[in-house]
Amino acid sequence: FNTSSLTRMDYMFNEALFLTYLDISSFDTSNVTNMKYAFDNLIRLEKIKLGTNWHFLQNCALSDSWIREGDTTVYTGEQLINSYNGSTMAGLYLNNSLAYAILYSNNEMVFQRGSKTDPTKGEVLDIYTDLEYSEYTNADDLPWASQRSNIAKITFKDEIIPKRVSFWFYGMINLTEIINLENLDTSNSPS
């Protein structure tokens, strides 16, 4: 896939609503003159891989905040667009704004923004995403359904705003503690 002659990328990935991973590390965008709306409405994008020949244009927008894998610097979408230099910044960027639920071997599930794990909580058993866009209508639809009877503690590290909370804690027979429940914002859930 040779992109070195490409001049227009406007609307290229716009409204790819279920896209979670985008590897454009092989793209050479040195001749591109239009990226308008190329990354708009990528509401589930978790990871984007950028390469050495990638160049953002100022007429492009990237929402959310991003962190390069193995780094600690967090960039807003605008900061990443304005500062990206392929020779020093190429790599995999993780969406630091998406909501994740991370289940650890100590039977704690942590709801948070970004997918950075906490090694003090034990081995990561599973990482669940798509929490704020899916409407689970029964207990077996929940991504953690097969593990629910093992979960003993839930921590809401960051604010989570799901569309629906029906069945979220259903069948958690070993649940003894919920920390920071005030970070579960149900304002978008149907009454």
What is the rounded Rg? 19 Å
Distance from N terminus to C terminus (CA atoms, Å) equals: 49 Å
The unreliable regions are: none
Q: Provide a count of the helices.
A: 2
- Helix proportion: under 10%
Give the strand order, joined by hyphens, for the main sheet: 1-2-5-3-4
In what range is the share of β-strand residues?
Answer: 15-25%
Order of helices and strands: EEEEHHEEEEEE
Mean pLDDT over the full residue set = 93
Shape verdict: elongated
| Assembly classification | single chain
Decide which structural class fits the backbone.
Answer: mainly beta
For the largest beta-sheet, the strand count, sense and barrel status come to: 5 strands, mixed
Number of strands: 10
What key attributes describe this structure?
single chain; 191 residues; mainly beta; 5-stranded mixed β-sheet; 6% helix; 23% strand; elongated
Question: What do you see in this structure?
Answer:
It is a single chain. The protein starts with 20 loop residues before the first strand and ends in a 12-residue tail after the last strand. It is built from two helices and ten strands; from the N terminus they run E-E-E-E-H-H-E-E-E-E-E-E. The chain is elongated and about 60 Å long. The chain has helices at 77-83, 86-89, and strands at residues 21-24, 47-50, 65-68, 74-76, 91-95, 99-104, 108-113, 124-128, 153-156, 177-179. A hairpin with a 3-residue loop joins strand 6 (99-104) and strand 7. A five-stranded mixed beta sheet has the order 1-2-5-3-4. With 191 residues, the protein is mainly beta.
